[in-house]
Design a protein that fits this description.
This protein is an all-alpha fold and 174 residues long. The protein contains four helices and no strands.
């Protein structure tokens, strides 16, 4: 019985990986090493990974090329120029905001670290408090037992002395 899995690296060609990846992109799916390996029945995913990396580099390069404005119909050219200016302005704004965003990210990270340290300290303090509460509960229980024993001893002593206390004292009244 023959396996459908390709046996060596040379069986996986970049054109095969590119064809599968292109189909996935056209279908609105993200090409991954696993999905392409599955579709090609490739046994060694390292070769698929290499080919996919090469395809991605070419794909990004192909889609980064700009279409000359003269290739558009004359009535659309002003719109394309306005769009390009807006995109350029937004890119510049984004680049200008990048250092500020980085600074804010670092500040937030520092605040986060301080708060995490505070939380850790509070968790430890809570654990200590819970241990102290447990110790106090044991001590309180012990004191309650002692009070109970003392009350029993007092009651026994009162009963023993109770006969003498109840007997009327002889009266020497004239």
């Amino acid at each position: 019985m023959k396996s459908n899995v390709r046996q060596n690296d040379s069986d996986v060609k970049i054109k095969d990986v590119a064809a599968v990846a292109d189909r996935m992109v056209w279908a609105g799916r993200m090409p991954t090493v696993d999905s392409i390996s599955k579709e090609l029945n490739a046994g060694n995913i390292d070769r698929v990974r290499q080919c996919l990396t090469l395809w991605k580099a070419g794909y990004n390069h192909r889609h980064a090329e700009k279409t000359p404005i003269t290739d558009f119909p004359p009535e659309v050219q002003p719109l394309v120029q306005a769009f390009e200016k807006r995109v350029t302005a937004l890119e510049a704004k984004l680049k200008a905001q990048s250092p500020e965003a980085l600074t804010q990210r670092n500040l937030l990270a520092q605040v986060n670290e301080r708060q995490a340290a505070q939380i850790d300290a509070l968790v430890l303090a809570l654990a200590d408090a819970e241990v102290k509460i447990a110790d106090q509960d044991k001590r309180l229980s012990s004191l309650r037992k002692q009070i109970g024993f003392q009350q029993q001893a007092l009651a026994k002593a009162k009963r023993r002395n109770g006969g003498a206390e109840r007997a009327p004292a002889p009266s020497n009244d004239p």
